[in-house]
Amino acid sequence: MNGMSTVVKTVARWVIGFILLVGLWLVAYGHLSPGGGFPGGVVIASGFILLVLAHGGRSADRVFPRPVARVLDSVGALSFLFLALLGLWVGGEFFRNTIQKGSPGRLHEVFNAGIIPFANLAIAVKVSMSFVVAFGVIAACRLRAGGAFESEEED
Amino acid sequence: MTDFLTVLLIFMLVSAVAAIHMRSLLSAVIALGALGFASALSFLALGAPDVAIPQVLVDVVTLVILIRATLGRDVKTTSGLRDTSGIALSVALLILFGIFAIQAARHLPPLGHAGMHAEANKPVSLPPGADFDPAAPSHFYIEKGPEVTGSANTVTAVLLDFRGYDTLGEATVLFTALVGAVVLLRKRSRSVPSLPSGAGAPSSPGEGGAAS
């Protein structure tokens, strides 16, 4: 993939900052407003996918290498599991909300709700990197006419 | 409200049929995206923005992008007729799932009432004026959720605190699917050295000792 025209590349460069900002907002305010780790992660991943589609696979790999995405995917999954095990170690129950319970006066503040924002962050990292890796894997193996798969050398 | 949902439902049915019958693959994908967007609009009309956002993202954005990126540039149209046995199987499955869906819909709470009934196999009959059954667990989530978890968004409180196991399983499913896709679609197969002839020959002393 060599990317698209200059118009697409320029508009993608303008827009990607806003896309990532919306994704981070959905993640950070997931326990206050509609959103959360999964939608925020998908928004962030679609920003990266836009980068790949506009600039082509090779230049996108220079900005954000695919092995890094694979490692971050595992890091997100393991940190979510670590948060669940933290409840087991500290509070005695799997998935116990250990850090801080909410108090009614601070209900609408960002740093509240114990492990929930951190779990949102872990899920966002996991989901976004999963979609990036899945897009890379699927786009590298395009479906040709007649139903045969043909691999394109990208790694 | 109900009229709007009916219009959306008709639109969804039309776009689903259009997605099947269009010969251009790009048009079929766009029709699928319209179906997903109408579904997201219906979620939004029912007051569930937490479901509508992932619906828009996954069904419209990601599905269209993924399918469009997967198809090569030389695949433009579909061809070939479906055989009669496939159509017969589709109709039979449609009738079967229709029966299940009608049976399940009898146990749903009425439109606009939150919370499930406490007893699973009983049609819902709420007292007039009550929004939910006080004995159901969802009653506890709605009433005490912000106070117990500190999360103002009750959906997030349910997903990450009350039902954290569910989210962990969801993440596991995504991870497993991704590992499967990466392994199946990789370009270089891992070079396998010549296997030992004996089936039970241990590859390393420690593993062999542990297995036997």
Write a compact overview of the structure shown:
The complex is a heterodimer of chains A (155) and B (212). Chain A is mainly α and 155 residues long.
Describe this entry's structure for a reader.
The complex is a heterodimer of chains A (155) and B (212). With 155 residues, chain A is mainly alpha-helical. Chain A has one domain. Chain A contains five helices and two strands. In chain A, a hairpin with a 5-residue loop joins β1 and β2. Residues 144-155 of chain A have low confidence and may be disordered. Chain B has 212 residues and is mainly α. Among the domains of chain B are: 1-71, no CATH class; 136-188, no CATH class. In chain B, 64% of the residues lie in helices and 0% in strands. Chain B has eight helices and no strands. Chain B has helices at residues 2-21, 25-45, 49-70, 84-105, 137-149, 154-162, 164-184, 205-211. In chain B, α1 packs antiparallel against α2 (25-45) and α2 (25-45) runs antiparallel to α3. Chain B starts with a helix and ends with a helix. At the A-B interface, α2, α4, α5 and β1 of A face α3, α5, α6 and α7 of B.
